[in-house]
């Protein structure tokens, strides 16, 4: 497979851009049928997605929701940090 991953970072703490490219083979019908049971891998998983530039052709939160995951989507780093802090506080106060 011909794949690539890269990162571009700006000085001054303005942010970073992560890019990846995957070249995949076309799946056979039998592979698709067997993957239906594998899609339950996200069942009852909690996933946090941070997308500051939403690509509507690749809707990542919708993909995980279709596979029965609990998805929280945020649009920037500030929202991401608030959600992580909120979840951390909830976990620390939860009874054992």
Question: How are the SSEs ordered, and which strands pair?
Answer:
Blueprint: E1 4-9, E2 16-21, H1 29-38, E3 46-50, H2 60-66, E4 70-74, H3 77-93
Parallel strand pairs: 3-4
Antiparallel strand pairs: 1-2
Describe the structure.
The chain is 35% helix and 23% strand. The protein has 96 residues and is an alpha+beta fold. The chain has one domain (4-93). Strands 1-2 form a two-stranded antiparallel ribbon. The protein is flat, with a radius of gyration of 17 Å.
Shape estimate:
flat
Strand order of the largest sheet: 1-2
Order of helix and strand elements from N to C terminus: EEHEHEH
* Unreliably modeled segments: none
Write down the overall mean pLDDT. 77
Gyration radius, rounded: 17 Å
Our count of helices gives 3
Structural class designation: alpha+beta
Biggest β-sheet, characterized?
2 strands, antiparallel
Number of domains: 1
Into which percentage range does the β-strand content fall?
15-25%
Task: Count the E strands.
Answer: 4
Distance between the termini: 46 Å
Instruction: Provide the helix percentage.
Output: 25-40%
What attributes does this structure have?
flat, 3 helices, alpha+beta, two-stranded parallel ribbon, single chain, 4 strands, 96 residues, 35% helix
Short description:
By secondary structure, the chain is α+β, with helices and mostly antiparallel strands.
């Amino acid at each position: 497979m011909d794949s690539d991953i890269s990162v571009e970072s700006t000085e001054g703490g303005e942010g970073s851009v992560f890019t990846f490219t995957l070249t995949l083979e076309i799946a056979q019908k039998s592979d698709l049928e067997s993957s239906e049971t594998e899609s339950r891998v996200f069942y009852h998983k909690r996933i946090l997605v941070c997308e500051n530039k939403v690509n509507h052709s690749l809707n990542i939160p919708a993909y995980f929701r279709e596979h029965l995951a609990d998805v929280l989507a945020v649009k920037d780093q500030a929202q991401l940090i608030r959600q992580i802090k909120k979840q951390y506080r909830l976990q620390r106060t939860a009874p054992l």
